[in-house]
Amino acid sequence: MTESHLKYKVKVPVAELPNQIILAEFKPREHVQKSYQTEAELEENLLIRLQAQGYEFLSASSSADLYVNLKKQIEKLNKVEFTSKEWQRFLNEYLDKPNDGMIEKTRKVQIDSVKDFIFDDGHLKNIKIIDKKCLSNNYVQVVHQISQTGTHHNRYDVTILVNGLPLVHIELKKRGVNLHEAFNQIHRYSKESFNSDNSLYKYVQLFVISNGTYTRYFANTTAQDKNHYEFTCEWADVKNRPIRDLEDFTATFFDKTTLLEIITKYCVFNSDNKLLVMRPYQIAATERILWKIRSSYLSGKAGTIDAGGYIWHTTGSGKTLTSFKVARLVTQLDYIAKVFFVVDRKDLDYQTMKEYQSFEKDSVNGSKNTKALKQNIEKEDNKIVVTTIQKLNEFVKKNPNHEIYQKHCVLIYDECHRSQFGEAQKNIRKHFKYYYQFGFTGTPIFPENAAGAETTGSIFGAQLHSYIITDAIRDKKVLKFMVDYNDSRPIFKSAEIEQDENELAKIKTKKLLLHPDRIHEITKYILKNYDLKTHRNEQYDIKSKRLNGFTAMFAVQNIEAARLYYEEFKKQQKNIPEDKRLRIATIFSFAANGEQDAVGSIADENFDPSKLNYSDKEFLDEAIKDYNNFFTPKKNYSTDGKLFQNYYQDLSKEVKNREIDLLIVVGMFLTGFDAPTLNTLFVDKNLRYHGLIQAFSRTNRILNKVKTFGNIVCFRDLQKPTEDAIKIFGDSNSVNVILERSYQDYLNGFVEEETGKVVKGYKDLCNEMIDKFPEPTKIETDSDKKEFVQLFGEILKSDNILKNYDSYQDFDQIISDRQLQDMKSTYADIREEVLEEKHNKAASDTSSKIDYSDIEFQVDLLKTDEINLDYILKLIFEKSKKNKDIGSLKVEVKRIIRSSLGIRAKEDLILGFINHTDLSKFENSSEILDSFYSFAKKQRKENVQKLIQDEHLKEGANNFIGDSIDKGYVNYNGSELDNILPPVSRRHGAREAKKQSILRKIQKIVEVFSET
To answer: Could you tell me the residue ranges of all domains in the chain?
Structure first.
């Protein structure tokens, strides 16, 4: 931390913050492990420590034991006794309803934790499964090695019971084992036994994984986009120092009060049925705001700057969830009349409303206008009022003597570095007599970037918590930036414009920056490099959809530049086949100045296109018409009033959905817009300070392994502004932390400054591979297989990074295409062997196998190649015309199929098509495509019907399987699968075993026939 930044970091004395679960400072104990520690010893040590912290040890080994204990604990919590008949009815009606899945169980814990139960004698009593009002009333126990059977027999490591319900499960691995191994085992249990019939493990809210040295936690969720290792969290203290060792983690996270607060207070079960658990810095910020409100209320400081403060949480760290949780908890304080969440733009008003409603339906009162705002303020409810600063200021002007000003109100300002510094904010503050004012920002205004104006601290008060960009990068919550500085000079050189000293002096003038040749060359560069920067020719899975690459934005200096670039893109794409063109859209509205102001703020654009001059409005209408025509059926947006706001909202959605390839913007979307599928920002605009960080941060949201960092391509000289901004908003040595390394570093290798670790370059990795494994398909020994997997995984990761650099296009690959195919095929084969080994508990030679537990298979990176059905079928057509030998054709096709993880399951289908088809009859590749899809359609129908008949599936099975094929996955958490099962006794797990058997067969059909 540089000396100038020490004053920006939060310093709150511990004594002032009682009863907070995030420690002000945690000093890890010395951990000296002199002897080898087995997994069993790690588990035993955990059990001892939990008991020392007040957890009762429960001696149990089966699901039946858990049910016996559950009855006792629910009776103890509610001070009742159930007869066996009443207990069974309570289970059937509420706690263990047939066909209830994870979602229904989670809803009971988070929302519906009390059941009105009528006992046999007729009296009614509220039966709680967890006491949220008085946490000390809850009983916590710890149990280990519970056995349960679904499709497989599993034995679980350590489970924490709250009132008899297993709400937290801990999976342990011995020290040295890759933590991904524990994560993957959790997911294996989820598929094999956690969610079997009458399994209390459907109630699990949180998972903890640890190898002793590293420990992480995450929510139990079915959400496809939140179910990756990247969404696990480390626990930390208030200064964001991670608490990793299992002993330290146990002493803090598993403190009884802390754990119960996390489960009951700091989880959000949103309207999409996704369970979210807050990260430590989000909890810390929430606690500090609540502390500030309580202490200010008690000390009579309401209505002063000392009653508030601001939260500095970097862009992309989840400020919306934090602010929502703060607002919801504040509404529960009986002395607070209203909670206002104030944004400074109408688009953010809509966006915040949507996000808050996604966290909790009907939690918010919006306000279309000042009249609606007044009505919502006067409502006697505990809803949050979301409004713009402009509407709130207008309300104050029109209602100078309203009674709300005499009540205690909390004002939470989003992105408090922008227009909240103006007269509107002062006017609001002047009228509210008992306000508590808080700001959230990822980029505060400090003296260095205030240019003599107000700072965030002078407006909002003390900084209450910080989580800066270097913290987020360290925690892998956001990505680094890779910045290319392609300024005007090389562009002009390639455009053959004379560059004498006078011309260079004028290079920054508006006339030259918008010179047709410069616009032409930059457009040409983007079209040439777009696929490279956005990985357009690579594939990945997100929310069970197969997507090609990412999307990009292009920030330009003003509306004129937007128009010139938009028209130049259309011109240069005229001769490109339509299916290869980029889908380009643009949006802008009136702003007094397209460039940044003195302190770096990006100029706000209002939502009133009518203020645009005729020419600009006419161009925008034409661009929106182009956008409408991209879709089938066509959309119907324009610059007219509400239709323009709807265009903004729809455009936002389609950019996130990867339906737009490049979005040209002036100011809109450069702040407050989150799209994890966006990875590249092209910049022809002067940016500085917080505006630069905000704009760059559109690209660095975590998504998957394929997205390694945010790409920034600058067509202006932004190197010094970038370094200046990073020094203000980062940490000591933060330039190296926030920006990616050079192309040469990744190619040739480097030494990490922080750790001294030597990182091999791509060249060395490839040469080592060729030297050790020239023919990977002939690897035989287990030790060679493991070494190959480790080395090829590093090659995949290094290649994925280098693909983002322009220079990599000219690199002469060391590994040939044929060798690479064999390597990918071998890598996938070994992975399948390892998975089979893990599932085959009966294997007699497991002890002789190599331990792969410290290996993470790079599955996402292996799936990226664009080897899809169309590619394979076109290849079959081309090869069949050159070579009539069907046998050799099948060998070559099989090699390519097996090198692609995404298409391996279709091997028999494709080879079956070759065997049953006269390839010589086809005149072109489109004919072979049509023929294959007809063949696949017939095979699909036969396979589905055979499964339905063999398994005696009920009515609706055909639709369920068909929908699963179309989606690309089987939804096994709801009741749809249960509804098509044949009648099977539930005794001894027979129905669950049958369900899992059928599930596997449907999954196999889905793998073969999806995308056919």
So the answer is: 39-72+135-277, 280-467, 507-733, 758-862, 869-1009
Phi-psi region of 306 (alpha: psi -120 to 50; beta: other; left: phi over 0): alpha
pLDDT number for residue 501: 47
Q: Which pLDDT score, from 0 to 100, does residue 315 have?
A: 84
Cβ distance 478 to 469 under 8 Å?
Answer: yes
Quote the CA–CA distance of 995 and 156 in Å, as a whole number: 22
Q: In this predicted structure, what is the pLDDT of residue 1? A: 38
The Cα 49–Cα 638 span in angstroms is 64
pLDDT tens digits, one per residue of 247-265: 999 999 999 999 999 999 9
Please check whether the two domains, 507-733 and 758-862, share a CATH topology.
no
pTM of the model: 0.82
Cis peptide preceding 28, ω within 30 of 0 = no
**Token pair 């599936």 in the structure block, residue:** 953
Task: Map residue 948 onto helix, strand or coil.
Answer: helix
The tally of CA atoms less than 13 A away on the side-chain side of residue 276 is 20
pLDDT of residue 497: 46
By three-state DSSP, how is residue 11 classified? coil
How far apart CA 608 and CA 589 sit, in angstroms, is 7
CA dist list (Å): 850 to 582, 774, 789, 912: 48, 22, 12, 36
The CATH fold of domain 758-862:
Methane Monooxygenase Hydroxylase; Chain G, domain 1 (1.20.58)
Looking at residue 430, what is its pLDDT? Answer: 92
CATH number of 280-467: 3.40.50.300
3-state secondary structure 819-850: HHHHHHHHHHHHHHHHHHHHHCCCCCCHHHCC
Burial of residue 775, with CB atoms counted within 10 A of its CB: 0-12 exposed, 13-18 middle, 19 or more buried:
exposed
CA-wise closest residue to 263 among 215, 219, 329: 219
Reduce the DSSP state of residue 742 to 3 states and report it.
Answer: coil
The stretches in the chain having pLDDT less than 70 are 1-18, 31-35, 222-227, 344-360, 362-364, 416-421, 487-510, 539-546, 590-601, 603-606, 731-733, 839-849, 863-867, 972-974, 986, 988-989, 1012
> The tokens 């630069």 sit on which residue?
692
pLDDT, the chain, mean: 85
pLDDT at position 727 is 86
Q: Are strands 551-556 and 235-236 parallel, antiparallel or unpaired?
A: unpaired
For the record, the structure tokens of 379 come out as 């409502």
Residue ranges of alpha helices (H) inside 269-332 are 280-299, 319-330
CB 914 within 8 Å of CB 893: yes
Give the strand pairing for 56-57 and 235-236: unpaired
User: Which tokens in the block code for residue 329?
Assistant: 């908890």
CA distance 245 to 907: 45
- Per CATH, the homologous superfamily of domain 507-733 is P-loop containing nucleotide triphosphate hydrolases (3.40.50.300)
Q: What is the pLDDT of residue 967?
A: 78
**Contacts for 291-295: CB closer than 8 Å, 24+ residues apart:** 291/16, 291/17, 291/20, 292/436, 292/438, 292/464, 293/330, 293/333, 293/336, 293/410, 293/436, 294/333, 295/16
Residue with tokens 């309803």: 97
Strands lying side by side in the sheet with 710-714? 481-485, 710-714, 678-684, 551-556, 662-665, 584-587
Contact 912, 939 (CB under 8 A): yes
Task: Find, among 72, 88, 210, 220, the residue nearest to 141 by Cα.
Answer: 72
Nearest Cα to Cα of residue 216 among 188, 242, 190: 242
Q: Which two tokens stand for residue 27?
A: 């000093």
Classify 39-72+135-277 by CATH class. alpha beta
* DSSP structure string for 97-109: -TT--HHHHHHHH
Tokens 């030259």: give the residue: 512
What is the number of other CB atoms lying within 10 angstroms of the CB of residue 58? 17
Position 600 scores a pLDDT of: 62
DSSP sequence for 782-826: HHHHHHHHHHHHHHHHHHHHHTTSGGGGG---SS-HHHHHHHHHH
Task: State CA 389 to chain mean position distance.
Answer: 30
